Amino acid sequence: MDEQTLAEVERAGTQFNAVTAMTVERANALTAESIGRRESDEPPRRLEGIPFAIKDVIDLVGYPTTMGSNVRSDDPVTASATVVERLEAAGAIPVAKTNCQEYSYGILGDESAFGRVINPVDPALCTAGSSSGSAALVATGAVPLALGTDTAGSVRVPAACQGAIGFKPTFGVVPVDGVFPLSPAFDTVGLFAADLGVLTTAFNVITGEDSGKASGRGAEPGLTGSGARTIDVSLFADDDARASDLLMPMPDLTVTSANGRVIGKLLDDLAPIYDFIRLYEAYEVHTDLYAEHSADYQPGVAKKIEAGRDLGETEYRKQLEALADLRKRSLTVFGGADFLLTPAIDGPVIRWDEIDSGSAAKFMRYSMPFNVLGWPALTIPLPSAGAAEVPQAVQLVGRPGNDRELLAFASRLG
């Protein structure tokens, strides 16, 4: 990795408090390997030389995984997460570990042992979380690609608040080995990118679909997303022009709002299932650590962990059954539609000084449901009318397992 790139990452990391560690030694070693391949006339790999950042709940060999917490070991880990190994095997080069909400537990991004990340669009605006630092490095252009995790919107919501592309794949298609969990029933490794083609290539790599051949920017070969499609925009208000403006250039697209009542009811019905399972699982994950180090957790995170203390296993099993049933019957929501288009968050990006007890729910309103259902979802930033404008974004949602079709369709939007 050239010194200029590393210097830019470090500069952005410092300016926006987005980096917990520069991974220079690893970057230099892999850069030397990449140069050696080129000098030996080996064909370039899919992500050859592309720098990427790693949310600091994801393991990178030779570096500690801090979790954004004072409750941690500072010993270097001995093996990288599978997703990191796959990106490196495709030629990508890790340049930084990124700041995040402590243990990924919080959508606002307001609590980290390293202090909160600064929104590069406007320091007064909330970054959202939990993958705040990864979003910031992509939004500033310091890196073209970054890893995050998404349990209720922790990739897509920071992407929306900071002006990046954010993708949560179908639940279970991306390995989570070497990734510290929050709630295993919903946890997904996700991607931030500045370019949808790079994101699509990286997704193919981390799901094990890497053909070994390099690809340029733009949509992946063979994934055009062409042909007649139907998209449901029921969740946009009648006076909200974001959906119509985005979809206008697609004359072969049928736009419907026929399923609004069904979709709205589903969003309301699944929240209690998410709340119980997430509280129970997060407490189970942290039981031993919290018993020994409760005073060292960030106050809001500690409060969330405490909230899961007395939830019973019998009810947890019932909620898992309800979740499985919900995932089976929820596909009727699509009706005749191929995709759903929704707002990314409920309302505008809020300022740090405007956060209140309802802010987290507004951030998760349209993201969390698709963690519960396990469907792939992509946050797409919209062009700003002016430099001072608050970021706006929409969310494109596909059927489970149709990740590549979703990404291909997204490449036609705008």
Automatic annotation (TrEMBL):
<dbReference type="InterPro" id="IPR036928">
    <property type="entry name" value="AS_sf"/>
</dbReference>
<dbReference type="Pfam" id="PF01425">
    <property type="entry name" value="Amidase"/>
</dbReference>
<dbReference type="GO" id="GO:0016740">
    <property type="term" value="F:transferase activity"/>
</dbReference>
<dbReference type="InterPro" id="IPR000120">
    <property type="entry name" value="Amidase"/>
</dbReference>
<feature type="domain" description="Amidase">
    <location>
        <begin position="4"/>
        <end position="213"/>
    </location>
</feature>
<comment type="similarity">
    <text>Belongs to the amidase family.</text>
</comment>
<keyword id="KW-0808">Transferase</keyword>
<feature type="domain" description="Amidase">
    <location>
        <begin position="307"/>
        <end position="407"/>
    </location>
</feature>
<protein>
    <submittedName>
        <fullName>Aspartyl-tRNA(Asn)/glutamyl-tRNA(Gln) amidotransferase subunit A</fullName>
    </submittedName>
</protein>
<dbReference type="InterPro" id="IPR023631">
    <property type="entry name" value="Amidase_dom"/>
</dbReference>
